[in-house]
Amino acid sequence: MFKKILIANRGEIACRVIKTARKMGIKTVAIYSDADAQAMHVQMADEAVHIGPSPANQSYIVIDKVMAAIKETGAEAVHPGYGFLSENAKFAEALEAAGVAFIGPPKGAIEKMGDKITSKKIAQEAEVSTVPGHMGLIEDAEEAVKISKEIGYPVMIKASAGGGGKGMRIAWNDDEAREGFQSSKNEAANSFGDDRIFIEKFVTQPRHIEIQVLADAHGNCIYLGERECSIQRRQQKVIEEAPSPFLDEATRKAMGEQSCALAQAVGYTSAGTVEFIVDGDRNFYFLEMNTRLQVEHPVTELITGVDLVEQMIRVAYGEKLKLAQKDIKLNGWAMESRLYAEDPYRGFLPSIGRLTRYRPPAEKANDTRAVRNDTGVYEGGEISMFYDPMIAKLCSWGPTRAEAIEHMRVALDSFEVEGIGHNLPFCAAVMDHPKFVSGNITTAFIEEEYPEGFQGVDLPQETLARIASSAAAMHRVAEIRRARISGTMDNHRRKVGKDWVVTLQGERFEVTIKADKKGATVKHADGTKHRVSSNWTPGDSLAKLKVDGEKLVLKVDKISGGFRMRHRGADLKVHVRTPRQAELASLMLEKVAPDTSKLLLCPMPGLIVKVDVEVGDEVEDGQALCTVEAMKMENILRAERKGKVSKINAAAGDNLAVDDIIMEFE
């Protein structure tokens, strides 16, 4: 077996590979840029080599720098993770020339299947059903518009070397095709060093389902079931699960066998994924093959018990697969929520900064429940603007889909992240959404169910009553502690009453508390009672309670007169007051937010790529004003209404912070 491998990647996937390498007794080498000098993967590896400045196109995707690190450390093999150089045939060729094993497929398979245009042609030649599209290269935006018209809108504009939603746009008309082509081309060049673009028909109402394959160099190939990846935003997966709630055994078998046949047709070895669009009648159409480990591979590992990274390493070493197709059994159900440094309350725009608090739920595994968190960050670390915004993958497993969802709900509620905007509230909201729970989902789920973006969750009355009861009991505990402070003046001792008024989410609950050593009984004005028990003490940021015998997990921060509580995607200001305090509070004026309607504010920390207007221009509703780049994604900022530009405060090349003023209007 290899004695030392280099991981040509960063973040959670580098940490993931290191864990398996350790288990196998293999030493590891990390590479890092300026921005990653203190990164977790650098700390975990046995050795680490600095390879350049922070931008990926000056460090992680520069083949010569990675090859120099291999030579310096004497690594015998390289695991590329996903993204960066993982599907770069030139990198595989350079490794082969240097006598270094590539923990991935042969360069010929990468060339044939890693390139989306080439892979589509091969699939068509192999009589695999594919989505209509233009497979040739596209020279400019006008040609893109012409081709889009011929295919018929809507169309998908894709980077040939793309992945992870980068270099991808949906266009519904000529203007969007023109804009989308240029943005996709720019993103592709920045992310992959390859700006080739192709266009295909965008199939409405599809499911995105993919098959995991595993092949060795001895002619063996197996499939390890499927993954449902339909919960996507901007073609970027957010929630994945395995198996799919939609497939039957016959369709699964057909898709798996076709995937293996395609892999063997190109001499594929290692782990790979064949992606399909599946329609409502379970007809499936080949999209592409990812010639690498997928981001969402943990859900397959959880339902099969197979360590895919270990199998990749063994195949690269020349070993035969010890698993046959008959050995692959799908056990239970697994969910994955991707934790992104994106603020759902600001249109999911990238968020960077320091993780002032990062406490994932405890990982565990037994016959009834599993929680797993693949991550590459730590409390106190920095989230950089230079890389993908995904910082962790939270996974759950249960014997059934309903149990896996419930375990995920509790895990999301227990995940503490502070210091940056993040999408945990959104993931929690999806887990509770009736349509998701039913399994009746398509790739349009987020677009259809959250057409105005994510504004938080309105919890049902029953849940609010349970939280109000918990808040009252917790407030009473804090009041008792404050009442016990020594050294108070005579006649100034704090008295803790039994009657309280709790307000949250616009609701008012009048309660009376009767406490004992085991907890508190909270009686509401309508006569209902809730029994609350917990070990929470003031200062704890996570409250794990039982209300009427059922588990309730709340993230808790102290605010004046109560708490900030977060639960199931809802962010609540909960005030607990005496009846007199509540009476006075009702008379207070509400603070009005400042008027920013005549300003274009930078919605995220980022780089101004271009400004599309000048002072004095009349702009229309929806007109592009400027483009901001952050975390490898270009974001076009548009006018929300008609107006006239009176002042421009930023120019191309400027780095701006959140809410910096880009331009002003009359």
Structural topology:
Layout: E1 4-7, H1 11-23, E2 27-33, H2 40-44, E3 47-52, H3 63-73, E4 77-79, H4 89-98, E5 101-102, H5 107-114, H6 116-125, E6 133-134, H7 141-151, E7 155-163, E8 166-171, H8 174-192, E9 197-201, E10 207-215, E11 221-233, E12 236-242, H9 249-265, E13 270-278, E14 284-290, H10 297-304, H11 308-316, E15 333-340, E16 342-343, E17 349-350, E18 353-354, E19 357-359, E20 364-365, E21 370-375, E22 382-383, E23 390-398, H12 401-414, E24 416-418, H13 424-432, H14 434-438, H15 445-449, H16 461-483, E25 499-504, E26 507-516, E27 519-524, E28 529-534, E29 542-547, E30 550-559, E31 562-567, E32 570-577, H17 579-585, E33 599-601, E34 606-611, E35 618-619, E36 624-630, E37 633-638, E38 643-648, E39 655-656, E40 661-665
Pathway: Metabolic intermediate metabolism; propanoyl-CoA degradation; succinyl-CoA from propanoyl-CoA: step 1/3
Pfam family, one: Biotin_carb_N
Domain Lipoyl-binding: 590-666
